[in-house]
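ARCHIVE CARD
Drawer: 12
Card no.: 0347
Subject: one protein chain, sequence and derived structure
Cross-reference: see card 0346
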Amino acid sequence: MKSKYSKSKIAALTLTFVCATTAMASATTLQYGDKGKNVIAVQQQLIKHGYNATDKNGVYGKETKWAVRLFQQDRGLPVDGIIGPATYNALMGAPRTTKAVLSNNAATKAVATKSAFTNQNAQSKRLAGQNVKLNNLKKVQTPSNIHAILAEADKYRGVPYVFGGTTPSGFDCSGYVKYVFAKQGIALPRLADEQYNVGTSVSRANLKAGDLVFFETYEPGPSHSGIYIGNGQFISATSSRGVAVADLDTGYWGERYIGAKRVM
């Protein structure tokens, strides 16, 4: 009788634990700006899976968000940088025996690139002889400079979209913009929201070729960047078409346009 009672009690406790865990998973939603023990647990699990969630423990910052997006991309989940029920369940299971990688090793490259962003941005402030500063970008505006930017941008038309991509083998939106401008000696931050914080704001009516244009897509605030090429069009790296030209004022992009910056 005692033995049967113990087994029944154990079974009941196990069922209670499973139900509680399931309820926790279904109720868990963590996103950029959140803090606490749940965030720490997510960061620790991301690191176990091989992703570089290096924000201060307990703070859901840019590094954690980036790591979550890479994890989601690798697992075929919607890429939004938010820990919802599906991402939570996938993440909190047993870590893989080998480090997850995106197609063409993009994840490995992206994590390495992301961890170097801060150093790259700091170094760009010290670049000598280029008269370029991240928070006050300056360069003599001449037709040749603008032409060079547009010509460089057009070279990569048709290059496929790769999440975390920063080279001509595959770009994401902000990686493409950064790469094109770097070829002309202008150092830009890596991410779209960071790029939005440099240069001088430009109204829609005063846009000129070479200006950066920004859109609100999968999250609030600037999450997609491109290069204005004139005549109401811009070029950017898109997830559906790769590097391609699109209309600024109509359709999908027209509804999501939020502003522009001039960095030349």
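Annotation on reverse: Confidence is low (pLDDT under 50) at residues 1-5, 13-27, 94-142. The longest strand covers residues 224-230.
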